[in-house]
Amino acid sequence: MRGRQGRLAAALLFGCLLLPARARASYEEFATVDVGQTEGDDEYMFDQELVRSPFYWHDEFDRALNAFRSSQGCFTAGKWHIDNELKIEVPLGDTARFRLDYRDYADMESAYGWTRLEARFPIAHTGRWGFRYTPNFEKSRQDFALMWEHGNALTPLEVHGVFTLEDAFNNFWSQRQVKVGGEPEPYVRHPYEPAASVTWRGSGPNFSANAKWLTPSTKRFATIEPELRRT
């Protein structure tokens, strides 16, 4: 369009820009994907990358005997991401070692935390053997594990094996500690969790492989509501 028609079109376009628009949300509450859930969705994709800890931190954390790392950041207008991990290792005797592991994690999908108390004993020609206890306020959820390891974070080859007895006091040794969440949930078939990891840092390409398997289990839900009782 030229001349008068062009000037008229430009004036109409400029006038439309000056028209007051209805305010939908502030910048902080603006939804990038779901317009129906603004508070739980704003800028979430970018925040996931911003709170991610750098990869080179992981190797340094693994090599240290005593270390603490934290990754925190804002996920939404009302949610805060937390990822804290602490480990401390001290002598338990001439050769034995005691280790404390602590984890505190909370994001948009899950929130959990655990404390692990470990005692490790070196045995000649067989590596280091250990025992792990994971306390929990709910006694039926406490775990025990037997561990074996060869090498450490400073040797070319590092191998770990862990066999965990899940929920040790839930109908395993005592009939009394079977309540979870206030209602009896005894195991009919108890779960176990074996895990193994292998790390190579010697000549050639470095690699790390990890595997964990939680065996199938069956619980009996003895609720106070007859219509909710099931196995």
Structure, explained:
- The protein has 231 residues and is mostly beta strands.
- The radius of gyration is 28 Å and the shape is flat.
- The longest helix is centred in the N-terminal third of the chain and has 16 residues, at 3-18.
- It is 14% helix and 40% strand.
- It has a domain at 124-231.
- The model is unreliable at 26-31 (pLDDT under 50).
- It has three helices and 13 strands, in the order αααβββββββββββββ.
Tag the structure with descriptive keywords.
231 residues; mainly beta; 9-stranded antiparallel β-sheet; two-stranded antiparallel sheet; 3 helices; 14% helix
Radius of gyration: 28 Å
Uncertain spans:
26-31
What is the structural class? mainly beta
Portion of residues in beta strands equals 35-45%
Mean pLDDT across the residues is 80
Strand line-up of the largest beta sheet: 1-2-3-4-5-6-7-11-12
Give the termini separation. 76 Å
Biggest β-sheet strands, sense, barrel: 9 strands, antiparallel
Fraction in helix: 10-25%
Number of strands: 13
The run of helices and strands is HHHEEEEEEEEEEEEE
| Shape descriptor | flat
Note the total helix count.
3
